[in-house]
Amino acid sequence: MSEAYQKPIPIMQPWSEGFWKGTKEHKLLIQECNECKKKIFYPRKACPKCWSSDLGWAEASGKANVYTYTIMKDMVEAKFAPDLPYVLAIVRLEEGVNMMTRIVECDPEEVTFDMDVEVVFEDITDECTLPFFRPVKR
Ligand SMILES: [Zn+2]
C-alpha cells in the first residue's frame, strides 16, 4: 500500500486533522459550529457564518447527491493518467455542505446530476484514507 501509492497525499493541518482521523476510521466527519450550529466543510479555523472559533466535529451520514461533475478523459497530471477515465465531482451531503470528490465503482457514463451517492473509503497509505462516493444501489 505505502510503497505503491504515487499520487499526492493530503497535508494534514491542525484544523483538518479531525477530518483525516475520521476518514482513517472510515467515518465522514464535518465541522459544526458550537455557537450557531452551522455545518462546515472544508475544515476551517473559524465559522464562516459567525466567525466563532468554537468548532466541533459531527459524523455525516455519508449520503449525498451529485451537484456537478466532469469526466476526466485526458490532460491530467501523469500520476493520475492510469485512473482515466474518472469522474471528478462536487457532491452535496445530506447535511447541506458540498465536497469535491470522485465518483467510483461505476462506469463514468452512468453518472448523472442529482444521482444518489454514498461515501466509500479508500486506504491509500497506512496513515491516510480518502473519501470517495459511489452510486447507491437500488
Ligand atoms: Zn457559527
Describe what is shown at a glance:
This protein is mostly beta strands. The chain has one domain. The chain has one helix and eight strands; from the N terminus they run αββββββββ.
Structure description:
By secondary structure, the protein is mainly beta. It has one domain. It has one helix at 17-24, and strands spanning 29-33, 39-40, 55-59, 63-72, 86-93, 98-103, 116-123, 129-135. Bound molecules: zinc ion.
Could you report the average pLDDT, rounded to the nearest whole number?
95
Enumerate the distinct ligands: zinc ion
> Which shape, going by the Cα principal axes?
globular
Number of helices: 1
Number of strands: 8
pLDDT below 50 for ≥5 consecutive residues: which ranges? none
Give, in spatial order, the strands making up the sheet with the most strands: 6-5-4-7-8
The figure for the number of domains is 1
Helix content: under 10%
Features of the shown structure:
binds zinc ion, three-stranded antiparallel β-sheet, 6% helix, five-stranded antiparallel β-sheet, single chain, 138 residues, 8 strands, mainly beta
Secondary-structure map with pairings?
Blueprint: H1 17-24, E1 29-33, E2 39-40, E3 55-59, E4 63-72, E5 86-93, E6 98-103, E7 116-123, E8 129-135
Antiparallel strand pairs: 1-2, 1-3, 4-5, 4-7, 5-6, 7-8
The protein binds zinc ion.
